User: Fold this.
Amino acid sequence: MTIVKQYFRPLLVWFSAQVYAELIARATEHLLVKLHGKLDFAGLEQACAAYHHTTGPGTKPTHPVPRLVRALLVQYVCDWSLRQLEFQIRYNLVVKWFVGYNILDAGPDHSTLQRFEDWVCAQQQRVFFDQVLQQIDAEFPADRTQTQLGDTYALHAAAAKEALVRLLRHTCERVLRELAVIAPSAHQRVSAKLERSVLFGPTDERSYFRMSSPERAAQLQNTVVGALQLIQLVRAQLLAQTAHAAHEQYPLVNWLACLEKILGDEVAMQRDAAGRVVRVTRLPKEQRGSYRLGSATDPEATYRVHGADKVDFGYNVSVAATINFVREIQADTGAQPDAVALPDLLTAQIEYHDTVPTKFIYDAAAGNGKTHAAVERATTGRTQLVAPLIAHAKNAARFTPDDFTLSADGNTLTCPNAQTTTTA
Assistant:
């Protein structure tokens, strides 16, 4: 069979080339055909050359880096999932040709594609965007300095929002898991002292939806008391641990901080003279903390609120674009206000592409002096932020910025009562 395969392989390569030649000649308007003639993949291949998945020294990879690079680019251009990408490479001849496989080759499966994408995200997360944008700039140099527009959109987290008790318990589970990884003996000592039935509930605990209000209040109080006990026990063990470097303890310390933040953001605790928690209540909505966590599956995701009926759990994605091309993109936690990302969007363009626009247009979310000053600092005055001023008078009972007078030299501010200050 090996001899037969070796004999037919050159014939297959020749046959594949003939079919592709006929196909591509009839598909000159296809986007991938156009990109194939324009894009230079050398930079991408060089940046990803360190990736390998061979089974032993000297073994040739089944799917070499140049093909994986092209496959990932097709995914981004066509906005496909990895399973869709696998299907298209296998059955769509134009895609198969673009990626570099012969007609009868199966191509990589979605697991192989995911391993490569995970590596790229960890090792070369900007390489696809920057390499393609550099080639766009070479083809359309005027676009580099065109006026840019900015906006945001919600990216939903790949995690389900968790009710408070479930969120606390899940976060406690993550704390215990990290402790078991870095210090198994400390984990055993904590587990021996931890009242698990208080923290995680009895084995026959009723469903939350079947509980009465008093039962739900008792469940919340027990969970909070158990979480506080866990924090105390784990921190005591951390103080006793001297064998582990700070970077080894960081994930555990981070999960402890998440647990403490949830408690601080969500509940009020009453204590007796001895410091014991005697009553736990949920904070009113308006008193809960900012940047609230919603799931221990993804603790970086928070709630993005854009109106009473527009609350998304996940991330706030900021985009800077000209009329023709996206120039920069950045994802921040959902609760971050839109305009906060503007200096970073512009700084990244300076750092990676040595350019910034002369004008940047945004909505009223950036219409305040603080954001204007931040943009001016980030670009050393090269970018003018254009944004409608915030109508402060709608929410102010007394004075707004428009009621104060700035002197011509910018050094003195005068209030409506004719009092002046030079404090900046």
